[in-house]
Amino acid sequence: MDTVLKIDQEVSLASYTTFGIGGIAEYFAIASSEEVLTLLTEYAREHDLRVSVLGGGSNLLVSDSGVKGLVIKNEIKDITHKVENEKVLVTAGAGEEWDAFVLRTVEEGWWGLENLSAIPGTVGATPIQNVGAYGVEVGNLIEEVKVYSLREQKFIAMTKDDCRFGYRDSIFKSEAGKDLIVLSVTYSLSTTPNPQIHYKDLAEYFSNHSGTPSQLEIRDAVVEIRSKKFPDWKKFGTAGSFFKNPVISTAHFNELAKQYEGLPGYPIGDGTVKVSLGWILDKVCELRGARTGQVGTYENQSLVLINYGGATASDISNFAETVKDKVFEKTKILIEMEPTRW
């Protein structure tokens, strides 16, 4: 029996993003399987439509003018695993909700992803963004990413090296990877306990803890810490951290450290230092809780921009540019926005 495609026209994307912002998609469809996704891309090719793929919409700012072509919401779901001694290879469909998947790995006793708890979005976004938090980057745990190439019209299994992971970066954000649609991700986890609690917030949280914390205790700690720093995306329009922590030269950092006592910096090799932008926004620019109209920085974490209700994509972009200008004026650092923009 032939698969019948359901393609809608003129669909608002605002409700499909955690910012609650976005114009109209010219065409919109949901892909619940690899078969449906490939048929939708064939339809787009036959009708000369540009393809844009939407996951959980948690790291995305959609323009007020909307999106031309076909927007495909990736809802491919399935979780399988294979045990190889102490290693567990867990494969999840790109449409799986990320935090529910992380909870599943914790419940199963598969170590590795617990520090990445309470992050909104879907599995498919994690290799694209090389999602990281509390001392863990997902790129270090990925074994394989299965993708569909729009250009070559075929499925490809990509290794960790193929993905070219960097700080909040990957091949999928470059021109070389723009035509690749993530279908599933395989993570290399472990049944051997390996708590990663060296990150400052976690180290402080467990400073008076007797013994080694369990996997569930680490997840609960991360959830609690994040709840105090980040707004509830179900109540506020937000894309989480809107700006990347900048990486600057050691010489530049040393100059700033003399000017701004206490500036946190983390050497990452090659004569560069990753700087805490949150500290700069708070202590140098005094932007925590700043607000213009319906847009502002979150009162508990200035890296986060908030749509307080009724803001447009232009409002968010203009406010972000103001933040960028102020940071550059004070530090000569040119900061980058983290969310993808359509």
Short account of what is shown:
By secondary structure, this protein is of the alpha+beta class. It has helices at about 35-45, 100-110, 125-130, 160-165, 200-205, 215-230, 250-260, 275-285, 315-330; strands at about 10, 25-30, 50-55, 60, 65-75, 80-85, 85-95, 130-135, 135, 140-150, 155-160, 180-190, 235-240, 245-250, 265-270, 270-275, 290, 295-300, 300-305, 340.
What would you say this structure looks like, in words?
This protein is α+β, with helices and mostly antiparallel strands. The chain has helices spanning 34-46, 98-108, 125-129, 160-163, 200-205, 215-229, 250-259, 277-284, 313-331; strands at residues 8-12, 24-31, 51-54, 60-61, 67-74, 79-84, 87-93, 132-133, 136-137, 142-149, 154-159, 180-190, 237-241, 247-249, 265-269, 272-275, 291-292, 295-298, 301-307, 340-341. A hairpin with a 2-residue loop joins strand 17 and strand 18. The longest helix is centred in the C-terminal third of the chain and has 19 residues, at 313-331. The two termini are 36 Å apart. The mean pLDDT is 94.
